[in-house]
Amino acid sequence: QRFRFCGDLDCPDWVLAEISTLAKISSVKLKLICAQVLRDLLGENIEYEKILKLTSDAKLESGDVKATIAVLSFILSSAAKHNVDSESLSSELQQLGLPKEHASGLCRSYEEKQSSLQDSLRACSLRLSQLGSVCWRVDYTLSSSELQEVNEPLVHLTFNVKDRDRGRTTAVSMTLSSDKFRVLLAELKQAQTLMNTLL
Amino acid sequence: ALGELGQLALEQLRRGAAPRACEAAARKLNIDVDTIQHGVEGLAYLLTESSKLMISEIDFQDSIHVLGFSDELNKSLLQLYLDNRKEIRSILGELAPRLPSYHSLEWRLDVQLASRSLRQQIKPAVTMKLHLNQNEDQTAQVLQTDPATLLHLIQQLEQALGEMKTNHCRRIVRNMK
C-alpha cells in the first residue's frame, strides 16, 4: 500500500513497528514530544531530559525512547518533504494503526511548523558553494616598469566563498580593468533580469 | 606464570605493547624484564599464527610438543589458544586494507534556462554529492548527469542487484553459509 508521506512508496517496516510504541504514550505527552522533535529538526537544541520525563510513564526502555524520536523525525520530515497536508497525514497515520487522538495531536504540531520545516529543509538542500560576501576597491595605476605613464583605473574584487561541508570560507581575488569590469557587470545584470522573470 | 604471560600477550594483541605491564610482571615473578618481553612476544606470535591459519587442536599440540614443555604447560597453552582464537581472528580481520565505503548521497534536480552564450534553453540536470567514508576520513565527490544517463545508471545498479538472484550467486551464497 502506498503512502503519500512516504513519497508514494510503501511505509518502511521499522516505522510500522514503532507506531505501536507511539501508541503506548498518552496523546498529550506525544504532542509535547513532537514539539521537541520539531525543535531538533529546525536546528534548535533538543531537550532530551524532557523527553525522558515524558516517556517515563509509558515505561519505555532507552532503546524505545530513541526509536520514538527517530520515527517522529522520519514522519515529520518526510511529510514536509513531500508537502503532505496535515489532514492527509492524520488519515494515513490512522491507517497505519495510530489511534485518532495521537494522530490529530501529532498533525496539529506538524501543521504549526510545516512551513518553517520546509524552509529549513530547503536551506540545507545540496548546494555546491555559497557566496558569503564581496569586497572591492578601485585603484588608479599611475606608472609601471613597462610604461612611465599608465593612468588607468583598476578594480580589485574579492569573493568570499563558503564551503558548507567544512565550514570554511575561501577568498577568491581578482583584478579587472574598467572595460572588463563593465562587461562582467553587464553580463551579471542580464542574468539578474532573467532570474527576476522567474520569481 | 603462563597465566600472566598469556594475559600480557593478549593485551599486546588488543592494544599494542605495554612495557610497564611487562616490568610489573617481571618484578612479581622475579625474572629479568627482557626475558618477560621475549616470552610475551613469542606467545603473541604463537597465538596469532595459530589463529591466522585456524590450526586444529591436534596440529597445535604437535607443533608445541617440539618445544619440550611439560604436559601440563602444553595443555594450558592449548586452552589459551582455543579460548582466544575467535577474538584474535576478529582483530586480525580488521587489519585488512579498506576501500572507501558509501556514507550518503545528496542530490538535486535543476533546469538550465539560459547561459551567457544561449538563451531560451531547457536542460534538466541532476547534481549529486556522494559522501564516502575511508578509515574515519570523510570525502565527498560532486557529480552531475542528465536524466538519460541517470536512468542508465539506475538500470546498471538494478542489474547488479539482480545478479544476487541468479542461480550461480545463490549456489555460492548457500555454500558459504
Automatic annotation (TrEMBL), chain A:
<feature type="domain" description="COMM">
    <location>
        <begin position="130"/>
        <end position="199"/>
    </location>
</feature>
<protein>
    <submittedName>
        <fullName>COMD4 protein</fullName>
    </submittedName>
</protein>
<dbReference type="Pfam" id="PF07258">
    <property type="entry name" value="COMM_domain"/>
</dbReference>
<dbReference type="Pfam" id="PF21672">
    <property type="entry name" value="COMM_HN"/>
</dbReference>
<dbReference type="InterPro" id="IPR037356">
    <property type="entry name" value="COMMD4"/>
</dbReference>
<dbReference type="InterPro" id="IPR017920">
    <property type="entry name" value="COMM"/>
</dbReference>
<dbReference type="InterPro" id="IPR047155">
    <property type="entry name" value="COMMD4/6/7/8"/>
</dbReference>
TrEMBL record, chain B:
<dbReference type="InterPro" id="IPR017920">
    <property type="entry name" value="COMM"/>
</dbReference>
<dbReference type="InterPro" id="IPR037354">
    <property type="entry name" value="Commd2"/>
</dbReference>
<protein>
    <submittedName>
        <fullName>COMD2 protein</fullName>
    </submittedName>
</protein>
<dbReference type="Pfam" id="PF07258">
    <property type="entry name" value="COMM_domain"/>
</dbReference>
<feature type="domain" description="COMM">
    <location>
        <begin position="101"/>
        <end position="168"/>
    </location>
</feature>
